[in-house]
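Support request from a user on the community tier.

User writes: "When I paste my C-alpha cells into the form, the page sometimes reloads and wipes my input. The last time it worked, I copied everything first. Here is what I submitted, just in case something in the input itself triggers the reload:"
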C-alpha cells in the first residue's frame, strides 16, 4: 500500500530569515522527538522575496544553536499562491503576514488554512511574534515560538489522531 501523505505545515514571516526559519527548526525538532517525522512535514517561507536564496539571520541561527537546533542549512524563499495547494496549514507570525497571506489566497477554503502561530500558545498575551530584525530580543522570540510550537504539535497530533 502507498505511504500516506504527511500533514504539511509552512511557517511564514516577512523575510524568512528570522522568525519562520526559527519556527521551522523548532517544530522539526519537536516532530522528530515525537517520532512523527514521516507524518508531519515542516517548511517555512516569507511573504517578501528580499532575502530569497539567503541563509537565516546570524542572530536567529545563533539563538537556535544555543538551544541545540541548527537552522544554518535553510535558505529563504518567497511564499506563493501555489503553496496553498501543497500545505495543509500555513502559520503566520504576525497580523501583517496574516493579511498578506489571506490576500494571496484565491478563496475562503484556502484562506482558512492560514492561522497565526501564537493561537496555539494558551498563555500568549498577544497573537504576534514581533519582528526582531531591526530590534533585539532574539531570545524572547525563540521562547515565544517554542511555546507555540509545543501547542501546535498537540493540535496536529489531535487532528491526525497520533
Ligand atoms: P523575519 O524578519 O520576517 O522574521 O525574517 C525580517 C527579516 C528581514 C526584513 C524584515 C524582517 N527586512 O526588511 O529585510
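"...and here is what came back when it finally went through:"
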Amino acid at each position: 500500500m502507498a505511504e500516506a501523505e504527511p500533514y504539511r505545515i509552512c511557517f511564514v514571516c516577512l523575510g524568512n530569515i528570522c522568525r519562520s526559519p526559527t519556527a521551522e527548526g523548532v517544530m522539526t525538532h519537536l516532530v522528530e522527538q515525537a517520532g512523527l517525522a514521516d507524518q508531519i512535514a515542516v517548511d517555512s517561507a516569507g511573504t517578501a522575496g528580499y532575502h530569497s536564496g539567503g541563509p537565516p539571520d546570524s542572530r536567529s541561527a545563533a539563538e537556535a544553536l544555543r538551544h541545540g537546533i541548527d537552522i544554518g542549512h535553510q535558505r529563504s524563499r518567497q511564499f506563493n499562491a501555489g503553496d496553498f495547494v501543497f500545505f495543509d496549514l500555513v502559520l503566520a507570525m504576525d497580523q501583517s503576514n496574516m493579511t498578506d497571506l489571506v490576500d494571496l489566497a484565491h478563496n475562503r477554503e484556502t484562506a482558512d488554512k492560514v492561522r497565526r502561530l501564537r493561537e496555539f500558545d494558551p498563555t500568549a498575551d498577544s497573537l504576534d511574534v514581533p519582528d526582531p530584525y531591526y530590534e533585539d530580543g532574539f531570545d524572547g522570540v525563540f521562547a515565544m515560538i517554542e511555546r507555540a510550537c509545543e501547542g501546535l504539535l498537540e493540535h496536529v497530533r489531535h487532528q491526525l489522531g497520533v
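Agent notes: The reload is a front-end session timeout and is unrelated to the input. Helices lie at 19-33, 58-66, 83-86, 95-104, 108-111, 138-160. The CA atoms of residues 18 and 84 lie 22 Å apart. Escalated to web team.
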